[in-house]
Amino acid sequence: MDKQYPPIEPGHKWFKTLVIKIVFFLLGRSFHSTSKLDPDIKKEIAFWEEGFTFMMKIFPHGPRMTVEKRRGVLKYRGSAPESADLVITFKSLESAFLLFTAQCGTCQGFAESRFIVNGDIPMAMSLTRCLNVIQAYLFPSLISRLILKRVPPMPLYKQLVRLYIYLVGVPLGL
After folding, report:
1. CA 60 to CA 174: how far, in whole Å?
2. Is-contact 154 136, C-beta < 8 A?
3. Burial of 166 by CB count in 10 Å (0-12 exposed, 13-18 middle, 19+ buried)?
């Protein structure tokens, strides 16, 4: 007698998924705020084409975040657009979780093949430079020193930008 067993469904990692969704929201709003105020990011995105869109997503059906350049600033578009000019796909939820919770830096994640880049590689490098600046704003200097190869200097103006990001940029999306 042949006994049929029901298919085994893999468990859902709801906590890590929630953390990644929150980080994508914070990161998207931070891209918007810093692109208006930080001179390094302004200089970096000045060369991007108007309407340039990049997306970060988790393979296969995880959360995603889309950011688009409009009128000289980066606008957070949530997870709505299906396609983008540059797509960074994290191979697993665990890989994204390590990178976005500052357990692993962007360079280390790339060296360990934790994500795939589809699109223009020079644009991906430009995005990485922007991401490094944003991480320096978001994380305390103790953590920034662990995940960034070189922590950008934080003069008083940048400390005020950091305060703006924390108090206005992320909560209100301005």
Report:
1. 31
2. yes
3. middle
pLDDT tens for each residue of 29-87 = 888 888 888 888 889 888 889 989 999 888 877 888 999 998 889 988 887 777 888 89
What is the Cα–Cα distance from 23 to 7, expressed in whole angstroms?
33
Domains with residue ranges and CATH for the chain: 14-168 (3.30.1050.10)
Return phi, psi of residue 2, to 5°.
-95, 120
Q: What is the pLDDT of residues 134-145, one digit of tens each?
A: 888 887 777 777
Virtual torsion, Cα 27, 68, 130, 116, nearest 10 deg: 80
Look at residues 53, 5, 26, 71 and name the one whose alpha carbon lies nearest to residue 166.
26
Model's pTM, two decimal places?
Answer: 0.80
